[in-house]
């Protein structure tokens, strides 16, 4: 079945450690996005990529990094520079020329101890 | 600076009632307004979307009302059901293309009681 797969679903890390969240899609979508969700703050855009080997910062990119080496994959690294990394992270994709619909994965919940 | 303000933060509605969630935006360049529904532990999914050339769009029990002059849009859920209990997010962007960035509201947690 086509969709977006995020892993791991739950992740615990010690403060000061970098962690990488995986996002894979088999929808053949060109654009991919990373959002952070915190209670009462909605979804905030971290990074997005419209094509392979290109990506742009979103509204809250500080402390995060991404890569887009393959169309299907858009991993997010939460670095030790991110001051408050505990959150629910959502990956999404969107086709070119579509209706504008974002297709989301089921999310990864990161807890930094 | 929050560009899309959503209210209420939470809402309790009896089964069969009407749920109403409101959003207001600031950027007059926004021209694509979707609503997303999210169940606990899941990613959001598109519910319904509207462009500013129409004032209302209906899909089943879900209706978006759009007021361009007031820069407001709202989601109405008619005959609300317990299965509608979820968090709802409004959003806005300049066009629906891949280069556009969706700005989301803060979400409304809806609970439909029996």
Q: TL;DR?
A:
The complex is a heterodimer of chains A (113) and B (114). By secondary structure, chain A is mainly beta. Chain A contains no helices and eleven strands.
Features:
heterodimer; A: 113 residues; mainly beta; seven-stranded mixed sheet; four-stranded antiparallel sheet; B: 114 residues; five-stranded antiparallel sheet; 11 strands
General shape of chain B? globular
Into which percentage range does the β-strand content of chain A fall?
over 45%
Estimate percent helicity of chain A.
Answer: under 10%
Q: Radius of gyration of chain A from the CA trace? A: 13 Å
Give the biggest beta sheet of chain B: 6 strands, mixed
What's the overall average pLDDT of chain B, rounded? Answer: 93
Basic shape of chain A: globular
Largest interface: A-B, 28 and 26 residues
The unreliable regions of chain A are none
Give the H and E element order of chain A: EEEEEEEEEEE
Strand content of chain B: over 45%
Quaternary status of these chains? heterodimer
Number of helices of chain A: 0
| Element string of chain B (H = helix, E = strand) | EEEEEEEEEEE
Strand tally of chain A is 11
Structural class of chain B, please?
mainly beta
Main pleated sheet of chain A = 7 strands, mixed
Number of strands of chain B: 11
Q: How far apart, in Å, are the first and last alpha carbons of chain B? A: 38 Å
Describe the protein in words.
The complex is a heterodimer of chains A (113) and B (114). With 113 residues, chain A is an all-beta fold. Chain A has no helices and eleven strands. The model of chain A has no long low-confidence stretch (mean pLDDT 93). Helices cover 0% and strands 52% of the residues of chain B. In chain B, strands 2, 4, 5, 9, 10 and 11 form a six-stranded mixed sheet that branches. Chain B has a five-stranded antiparallel sheet with strand order 1-3-8-7-6, with no helix packed on it. The A-B interface holds A 4, 30-31, 35, 40-45, 48, 50, 58, 90, 92, 94-102, 104-107 and B 6, 9, 32, 34, 36, 41-46, 49, 89, 93, 95-102, 104-107.
């Amino acid at each position: 079945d086509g969709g977006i797969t995020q892993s791991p679903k739950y992740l615990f890390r010690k403060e000061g450690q970098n962690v990488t969240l995986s996002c894979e899609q088999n929808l053949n979508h060109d654009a991919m996005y990373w959002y952070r969700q915190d209670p009462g703050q909605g979804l905030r855009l971290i990074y997005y990529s419209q094509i392979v080997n290109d990506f742009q910062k979103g509204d809250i990119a500080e402390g995060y990094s991404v890569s887009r080496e393959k169309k299907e994959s858009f991993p997010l690294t939460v670095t030790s520079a991110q001051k408050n990394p505990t959150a629910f992270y959502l990956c999404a994709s969107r086709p070119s020329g579509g209706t504008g619909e974002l297709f989301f994965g089921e999310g990864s919940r990161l807890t930094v101890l | 600076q929050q560009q899309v303000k959503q209210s209420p933060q939470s809402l309790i509605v009896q089964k069969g009632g009407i749920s109403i969630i409101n959003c207001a935006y600031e950027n007059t360049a926004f021209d694509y307004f979707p609503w997303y529904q999210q169940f606990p532990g899941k990613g959001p999914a598109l519910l319904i979307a509207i462009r500013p050339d129409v004032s209302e769009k209906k899909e089943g029990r879900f209706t978006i009302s759009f007021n361009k002059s007031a820069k407001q849009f709202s989601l109405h859920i008619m005959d609300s059901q317990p299965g509608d209990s979820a968090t709802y997010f409004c959003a806005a962007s300049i066009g629906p293309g891949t280069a556009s960035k969706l700005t989301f509201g803060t979400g409304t947690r809806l609970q439909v009681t029996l």
